Structures are given as C-alpha cells and as structure tokens.
Amino acid sequence: xxxxxxxxxxxxxxxxxxxxxxxxxxxxxxxxxxxxxxxxxxxxxxxxxxxxxxxxxxxxxxxxxxxxxxxxxxxxxxxxxxxxxxxxxxxxxxxxxxxxxxxxxxxxxxxxxxxxxxxxxxxxxxxxxxxxxxxxxxxxxxxxxxxxxxxxxxxxxxxxxxxxxxxxxxxxxxxxxxxxxxxxxxxxxxxxxxxxxxxxxxxxxxxxxxxxxxxxxxxxxxxxxxxxxxxxxxxxxxxxxxxxxxxxxxxxxx
Length: 254
Known about the structure:
By secondary structure, the protein is an alpha+beta fold. The protein has two domains: about 35-120, 3-Layer(aba) Sandwich (GIY-YIG endonuclease); about 140-250, no CATH class. The protein is about 40% helix and about 25% strand.
C-alpha cells in the first residue's frame, strides 16, 4: 500500500509540474490581438452595415483611420461599430476614406496600447498625446546619471576629487555598498520568508534601509530580516526595477 501511495504522490507531483509548465507557456504565448481587418474602404460601413455589425458589435479594440493611405487618426473603443459610425458624422467626417480595426481579447492594457501609438506615431487627427498611468519618466534619472558619469571620468583622468550628485565618491560607494554599482537611484525592495513579507528600500548610494536601520549589503539586510538565517541577499530580495516589474537583485548583475 505504501508503494502505491508513493507512486500516486509522484504522479501528482508530475501533473502539478506539467500544469505549471503549461501555465508558463500560456502566459508566454498570450495574445493581444485576436482578429483584424485592415485597409477597408469607409463605404463598407454604410453599404454593408449588417456584416460590419456582426464583426465588431460590442467588441473592444484599436482602430485606425486613413486618408489617401496615410494614417490620420488612432483610437480605442469598447463598441467599435458605434465609434466608426460616429466618425462618419463628427469632426472627422470627410477626412478619412479607409480604416483598419484590431480586435482584442479584452480591454486590459488597451489604453496603454493606444497611448503608445499616439506618442510614437502622432497621427494628425488626434488632439491628445496619450498618457501612461504608472510608467516612470527616466529623464531625471538620465540627467543625474550623466552628471555622475562625468564626475567619475574627471576623477579617473586627472585624479581630481569631485563630488557626485549623491554626495559620495565612486570608490567609497562601491567599497562600502556594492549594490551602488548596479543602480542609478533609489529602489523599493520586497521579500518573502516562511510566509512572512518584508519591505526595505535602497538609497541612491546603495545602502539598504530595513526596519529603521541601514545595511551595507543585501545579504546583511537579509540576515537581519530572517533573524540570523544564512541567506544570499541578492536572491532573497526583489527590487522594483520599473513600476510593477519585480526582479531579484541578482538580475541587476547580469
């Protein structure tokens, strides 16, 4: 009986692993656009309303309007048929002659997709530029990193002790806080150990603040969080490299 139970357990583990692998493949192969209709005359909407209604009624997606084969306007809609009909009568009337529609599975990330198109292509018929709800603008970080780069280069070339933006010198930062080599600004950290969640923060100089105290290395902060358990802090802590994107600190070294 024990052997049968063991085999059953192994089979269960095998099925669990297979299910996880299938879920991973599904996430990797997840599609955004499920159907599309490109470069169609605008007359189709008025001449064959029943057919167009069957295709796009109550469907969500992105649509594009063209004027003499040049992109004129881009928009999104949760009811594409109603939106296209509206554009035959609103301020865009007579300014476009063909259209394309891209139907999506649902409306997740649809607004961001529209904003991405508007910010990169800038169609003349769109008044809005497009906004990202949570995306971090890296211009300020770029300016700070360029300044620090010039400080470091000046010291390397002529040996002059210059003060970077964060107030410390390159050699001092790297020797005391090794994480400083892989970051360009403050970061949020998180970790889970035995079901308990931990939060910490990396300062610009690479020091880690956890529970009101500073630690020079990720492992030192992890050692304190786990109350003395030996831990590789580079794999223990996850950092928010970009809004909503969490990776281990070890990923920063690759």
